[in-house]
Each structure stands twice: as structure tokens, then as C-alpha cells.
Amino acid sequence: SQTIHQWPATLVQPVGSPLSLECTVEGTSNPNLYWYRQAAGRGLQLLFYSVGIGQISSEVPQNLSASRPQDRQFILSSKKLLLSDSGFYLCAWNGGGNQPQHFGDGTRLSIL
Amino acid sequence: AQSVTQLGSHVSVSEGALVLLRCNYSSSVPPYLFWYVQYPNQGLQLLLKYTTGATLVKGINGFEAEFKKSETSFHLTKPSAHMSDAAEYFCAVSSLRANSGYALNFGKGTSLLVTP
């Protein structure tokens, strides 16, 4: 069966520090991959999605970037974190098209 | 673009009572609709989905939703609430993006409180 892993589960970082969050999927090949951010009381906002290795689409201009170095690996990064980057970050995958997305357990990011 | 609106950011029901969480969608094409549940500090779990065909969709944990095109609604119901149903619920619609990718547009969520 397919599984999705995110780490770390929680992270506390100072303003201006770099960031790397990792997401991997097992048990499937060529998944579509997604990064969402969930801010308190604001629902989920799509940040990036990827339909293949090296193919990244950004939804909103921001301080973050994403990369897909391998088929089942999706990384969210920042060179310098801002206070506004705090939130709950969720990775998701699906088999493409309108298929349901399956979510990881998320990373709680706090910026001090 | 496709979007959903969830009416009521907080809903409180008594244990054993009917659960009704409202979702209305906006879509220029036949929508693909989803309900997800989120427990504290966890990811989202798929409850049910509507793609095509039968308009009454049954999901996990006794939940179901009915797609009503005339009302552009996809409300989530459960006949009898359990304490374990207390969570955040999200309605979502699939939306075509650039590069032929699809992603979900989520509502802002409804927090369900179940009282003894």
C-alpha cells in the first residue's frame, strides 16, 4: 500500500534561518505531489505542486521554494525564514487528475 | 475557477444527534468534490468523494454527502454523532491548474464539537 512520510513533525526556527522540509511517498510511482500550508483559521493554501521530476509549479509568490529531485521526493525550502512562514505544512500526493489526495501528518513550523 | 464555501466555522451537536456540515461549490465544469477530516496536529483524512454517477456518496465512519447540482451543494451528514467525530472538517473541489495539473481548493473548514 502507499504511504507518505513527512519530517520533521515539529520545528522551531529563528527568523532568517534556512528551512528544509522533506516529503517522501512509498508504494507508487510518478505521483503528483503537493505542498500546502495551513494557517490558523484560514484553511489550506496550495503552495506548490509537481507532476514530475524537476517540474514545479508555484501557486503564490512567497519566500519559499520547492524541488523534486527524485520521483517520490518533494522538498520545501527557504533561504531565510520570515515570521509569516509559521504554520502547519502538509504534503500530499495523488495518482494524477482528479483522484483524491492523500496527506502526510504535517510539520508544525514555528518561527521565533 | 472552482471554489467551495463552508457555512459555519463552528458547529456544536449533542452526542447521538444529527450532524450536518454545509458546503456550497462554485464551478464552471462538472465538479469533483471531497470531504476531509483533520484531527488535532494530524494530516487530512479522506472521508468521501464525489466524481460522477450516484449523487449520494457514502464514506467512512458513517458519514455521507449528497451532491445537489441545482443547489450547488455537497453537504456532509451523519445520523448520530459520536464523541470521536469531534474534529475539523474540510470540503474541497478539484481545480485544473497550469501545466495540466490538478489541485484542491479547500473551504476554510468547520470545527465540529460533540457534547455529551
Mean pLDDT of chain B: 92
Spell the H/E element sequence of chain A: EEEEEEEEEEE
* Rg from Cα of chain B: 14 Å
Largest interface, with Cβ-Cβ < 8 Å? A-B, 28 and 27 residues
How far the N terminus sits from the C terminus of chain B, by CA atoms, comes to 41 Å
H/E element order of chain B: EEEEEEEEEEE
Biggest sheet layout of chain A = 7 strands, mixed
The low-confidence runs of chain A, each spanning 5 or more residues with pLDDT under 50, are: none
Helix content of chain B: under 10%
Q: Tell me the number of helical segments of chain A per DSSP (H or I, 4 or more residues long).
A: 0
pLDDT under 50 segments of chain B (min length 5)? none
SSE class of chain B: mainly beta
Our Rg estimate of chain A from Cα atoms comes to 13 Å
User: Sheet with the most strands of chain B?
Assistant: 6 strands, mixed
Share of helix of chain A, binned? under 10%
Give the overall shape of chain A. globular
| Number of E-type strands of chain B | 11
**Average pLDDT taken over every residue of chain A:** 92
Keywords:
heterodimer, A: 112 residues, mainly beta, 7-stranded mixed β-sheet, 4-stranded antiparallel β-sheet, 57% strand, B: 116 residues
What does this 3D model show about the protein?
Chain A has 112 residues and is mainly β. In chain A, 0% of the residues lie in helices and 57% in strands. Chain A contains no helices and 11 strands. In chain A, strands 2, 4, 5, 6, 9, 10 and 11 form a 7-stranded mixed beta sheet that branches. In chain A, strands 1-3-8-7 form a 4-stranded antiparallel beta sheet, with no helix packed on it. Chain B is mainly beta and 116 residues long. Chain B is 0% helix and 57% strand. In chain B, strands 2, 4, 5, 9, 10 and 11 form a 6-stranded mixed beta sheet that branches. Chain B has a 5-stranded antiparallel beta sheet with strand order 1-3-8-7-6, with no helix packed on it. The model of chain B has no long low-confidence stretch (mean pLDDT 92). Chains A and B meet through strand 5, strand 9 and strand 10 of A and strand 5 and strand 10 of B.
